[in-house]
Design goal:
18 helices; globular; single chain; Growth Hormone, Chain: A; mainly alpha; 2 domains; 2 strands; two-stranded antiparallel ribbon
Length: 466
C-alpha cells in the first residue's frame, strides 16, 4: 500500500506558466552572477597586477571546473538522498559559497593584507592577485556545482512532453539574467547619474544568486526517495548502466560521420565565442578608451584613470546587454526559419554574420560602431545556443541523451582552455608603446575569433542533415 502511495506522489504533473516562471528563477540568479564575473573580472585582476597571460590563466577556472566539477557533482546528486532532496543541497551550497566568493573577489587586496597582519607575516608579492584567483576558481566551481543539478531538475520534476518548454524557460532566464546584470550599472549611471562601484556590482550579483536560488530551494518540491526493494537488483542495474554509458559513447561517434563534424564545428565556434567573452572588457578599456596597461602602475596613476575605466566597463556592460537582448529577441524566429530552410543553412548564415561582427570590432575604434557589431553578434549567439544541438539531436540514439550531451560539453569547455592559454599568451607578446605607457593589441582576439568562426561556417556547410 505504501509503495502505491509513493508511486502516486511521484507522478509528474504538468507545469503551468506560472510554475515554469518560478522554476527558472534560480537560473536567473545563477546567470546574473556569471555575467557579472564575465564583465568585471578583467578590471579587478588587472588592478591587482595581472598581465594578459595571467588573466587568461585565471580564466582557466571556467572550462576546467566545467569539465570536472559538473560531471562529479551531477553523479553525486544522483546518489544523494536527504530530507532536503537530491538536488537542493547542491543548489543551496553552490549559491552560498559562490555568493561569498563574489563578495570577496573585488576585496582581494584588503583580504590579503588583513590575512598577512593576522598571521604576522609579510604580505607576499601579488598577494591580492592570489586571493582573487582563488575566488575566481571558487565562483566558477560553485556555479558549475549548482548548474548541473539544476539542469537535472527538468527530467526529475517536469513531464517528458514539457522538457523542451522547461529548457526554453531556462534559456529565457539566461537571457534575462544577462541583460539585467549587464544593464543595471549603465542604467543607473545614464538615467540617475549614479555610478555603481565594482564592489557594489559584485554584491548585487551575490544577492541575486543567493536569494533567487534560496527561493527555488524553498518553492520547488523534490520527490521523496524510494528505497529499492532488492539491493542485488539495484547493483545489477547500476552495473548495467555504467557499461551502457561506454557503449553509448562508442555508438554515438560510430552512428554517423556527421557527428564528428558537429563536434569539430562546436570546438572552433567556441574558440571564437570565448575570444569575445574573455577579452571584450579589456578591449573596451584599453583599445576603445585608450587606458594604458596598469599592471605595474602606481596607485596614483591607477586612480587617475578611475573615471575612464568606469566609462569603459559601463560601455562593456551595455554591449553585453544589447547582445543578449538581440539574442533573446531572435531566438524564436531563428527556430521557426530553421524548420523551413534547415538548421545547416540558417546556422551557416548566422556564423558568417557573426564573423563580420568580429571583424568590425577588430577594425574599428568607434564605440558606437562596436555597439552595433555587438547587436549583430547577438544573432550568431542565438544560433549557437540552439542549432548545433538541434543538428546533433538527429543522430542521438534514444536513451543516451544525457551521456551524449556530457560528451558534447567537452567541445564547449575544451576550446576555452585554448583561448585562456594560447590566445592570452599571444596577446601578451603583442605590446606597443603609447604616450602614457604600453598597451596590448586586445583586438587581435577578434581577428583570431573571426578565423575560427569562418572555419566553423564551412564545416557547417559540409554537414549532411537527415
Amino acid at each position: 500500500m505504501s509503495s502505491e502511495t509513493n508511486a502516486n506522489e511521484n507522478v509528474l504533473k504538468r507545469f503551468s506558466t506560472v510554475q515554469l516562471l518560478n522554476f527558472c528563477l534560480g537560473f536567473f540568479g545563477l546567470q546574473f552572477a556569471w555575467q557579472m564575473r564575465i564583465i568585471l573580472s578583467g578590471p579587478v585582476t588587472e588592478n591587482l597586477g595581472a598581465s594578459p597571460l595571467l588573466f587568461g590563466l585565471i580564466w582557466l577556472a571556467g572550462p576546467i571546473t566545467g569539465m570536472v566539477v559538473q560531471p562529479i557533482i551531477g553523479n553525486l546528486s544522483d546518489k544523494t538522498h536527504t530530507v532536503f532532496g537530491k538536488r537542493r543541497p547542491y543548489l543551496f551550497a553552490g549559491a552560498l559559497f559562490a555568493s561569498l566568493a563574489l563578495w570577496a573577489f573585488p576585496n582581494s587586496a584588503a583580504i590579503a593584507e588583513k590575512a598577512a597582519n593576522i598571521l604576522h607575516i609579510p604580505l607576499p608579492a601579488f598577494g591580492g592577485l592570489i586571493i582573487a584567483a582563488i575566488m575566481i576558481w571558487v565562483i566558477d566551481a560553485c556555479v558549475n556545482a549548482a548548474q548541473g543539478p539544476y539542469r537535472a531538475l527538468v527530467p526529475d520534476l517536469v513531464p517528458p512532453e514539457q522538457h523542451s518548454l522547461a529548457n526554453a524557460y531556462l534559456s529565457f532566464a539566461i537571457g534575462l539574467g544577462s541583460v539585467v546584470a549587464a544593464g543595471t550599472a549603465p542604467f543607473l549611471k545614464y538615467v540617475f547619474h549614479y555610478q555603481m562601484s565594482i564592489n557594489a556590482q559584485f554584491i548585487m550579483a551575490a544577492l541575486a544568486f543567493s536569494l533567487a536560488m534560496l527561493w527555488t530551494c524553498i518553492t520547488i518540491q523534490e520527490h521523496k526517495y524510494q528505497k529499492p526493494s532488492n539491493n542485488n537488483e539495484n547493483k545489477e542495474e547500476q552495473k548495467e548502466n555504467e557499461t551502457s554509458f561506454l557503449n553509448k559513447v562508442s555508438e554515438f561517434f560510430k552512428s554517423s560521420p556527421e557527428v564528428s563534424k558537429i563536434c569539430v564545428l562546436q570546438l572552433f565556434t567556441w574558440i571564437g565565442i570565448m575570444s569575445l567573452n574573455i577579452f571584450f572588457t579589456q578591449y573596451a578599456t584599453h583599445t576603445l578608451y585608450g587606458v594604458p596597461d596598469l599592471t605595474t602602475a602606481s596607485e596614483v596613476i591607477k586612480n587617475s584613470y578611475t573615471d575612464t575605466i568606469n566609462k569603459a566597463t559601463n560601455f562593456s556592460s551595455i554591449c553585453f546587454a544589447v547582445q543578449n537582448l538581440i539574442c533573446f529577441l531572435v531566438s524564436i524566429p531563428i527556430g521557426l526559419i530553421s524548420t523551413k530552410l534547415g538548421n545547416k543553412k540558417v546556422h551557416f548564415i548566422s556564423l558568417i554574420t557573426l564573423t563580420f561582427a568580429f571583424l568590425g570590432m577588430g577594425l574599428s575604434k568607434n564605440p558606437s560602431f562596436v555597439l552595433i557589431c555587438m547587436a549583430v553578434a547577438g544573432i550568431g549567439w542565438a544560433s549557437i545556443l540552439a542549432l548545433p544541438f538541434a543538428m546533433l539531436s538527429e543522430f542521438i540514439k534514444k536513451g543516451s541523451e544525457g551521456s551524449v550531451m556530457g560528451i558534447f560539453n567537452i567541445f564547449i569547455a575544451g576550446p576555452q582552455v585554448l583561448v585562456c592559454t594560447l590566445l592570452a599568451w599571444f596577446i601578451s607578446l603583442c605590446s606597443y608603446q603609447i604616450p602614457e605607457g604600453i598597451n596590448y593589441h586586445w583586438e587581435y582576439a577578434f581577428f583570431i575569433g573571426a578565423i575560427t568562426l569562418i572555419i566553423s561556417a564551412f564545416i557547417t556547410n559540409t554537414i549532411k542533415e537527415k
